């Protein structure tokens, strides 16, 4: 595997379910990101991890819980979601966290539908 | 705060037509500018970037010039192909804002044969 991978690619869950999204990067990067992409809206940065430490949390509801056990893996744990949380969730990685000239490499995303 | 504004889509063109997608920005610092492309069913890929005024980023026939005087970074291609059909995102990274990527809302391009 190369680049940034995400699993699952599609997820349908009820509002009372608990599920997790997984991201893995094979690029040797130090920083990882979660974004939310909703229809007709700009990408929203949710969380940033740099060297496994959370450095950014953009007022994301507590029903989204990130975890970064090492610099190659990032999880997004989901519980008691709402239908408006349905979106494409994108993971990205970069060599450094939040640097000015900082190319981010994106995974293909997980399409989440909350019923 | 910083922001990026792109022309609304969808943009529909015939193959070999000239493409322009407008992008303007506001930033408190001196940002770097990027164009990302998202093909159907995929994540975003960096298309090109420019880090200072008058820089021209180019890749795969696409070009964009960093215009500080007009705070713009318009994307152009002289002859589009069907395979260019995708959503294009303009973005900035402002060192005064911790270097976060701030994206525009995206412009969908559809190229017909």
Please characterize this protein's 3D structure:
The complex is a heterodimer of chains A (115) and B (113). Chain A has strands at residues 4-7, 10-13, 18-25, 31-37, 44-50, 53-57, 64-70, 73-79, 87-94, 105-106, 110-114. Chain A is an all-beta fold and 115 residues long. The N and C termini of chain A lie far apart (32 Å). The model of chain A has no long low-confidence stretch (mean pLDDT 89). Helices cover 0% and strands 50% of the residues of chain B. In chain B, strands 2, 5, 6, 10, 11 and 12 form a six-stranded mixed β-sheet that branches. Chain B has a four-stranded antiparallel β-sheet with strand order 3-9-8-7, with no helix packed on it. A two-stranded antiparallel sheet of chain B has the order 1-4. In chain B, strand 5 and strand 6 form a beta hairpin. Classes of the chains: A mainly beta (115), B mainly beta (113). Chains A and B meet through strand 10 of A and strand 5, strand 6 and strand 11 of B.
Characteristics of this structure?
heterodimer, A: 115 residues, mainly beta, seven-stranded mixed β-sheet, four-stranded antiparallel β-sheet, B: 113 residues, six-stranded mixed β-sheet, 0% helix, 50% strand
């Amino acid at each position: 595997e190369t680049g940034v991978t995400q699993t699952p690619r599609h997820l349908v869950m009820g509002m009372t379910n608990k599920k997790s999204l997984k991201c893995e990067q094979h690029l040797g990067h130090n920083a990882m990101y979660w974004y939310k992409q909703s229809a007709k809206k700009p990408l929203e940065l949710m969380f940033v991890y740099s060297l496994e430490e959370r450095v950014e949390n953009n007022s994301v509801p507590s029903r989204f819980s990130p975890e970064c056990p090492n610099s190659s893996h990032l999880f997004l744990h989901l519980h008691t979601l709402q239908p408006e949380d349905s979106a494409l969730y994108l993971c990205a990685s970069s060599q450094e966290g939040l640097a000015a000239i900082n190319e981010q490499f994106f995974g293909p995303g997980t399409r989440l539908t909350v019923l | 705060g910083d922001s990026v504004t792109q022309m609304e889509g969808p943009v529909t063109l015939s193959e070999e037509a000239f493409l322009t997608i407008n992008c303007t920005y506001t930033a408190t610092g001196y940002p770097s500018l990027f164009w990302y492309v998202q093909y159907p069913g995929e994540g975003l890929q960096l298309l090109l970037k420019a880090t200072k005024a008058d820089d021209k980023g180019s890749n795969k026939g696409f070009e964009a010039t960093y215009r500080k005087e007009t705070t713009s970074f318009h994307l152009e291609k002289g002859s589009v192909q069907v395979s260019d059909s995708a959503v294009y995102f303009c973005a900035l990274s402002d060192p005064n804002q911790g270097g976060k990527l701030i994206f525009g809302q995206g412009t969908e391009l559809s190229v017909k044969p």
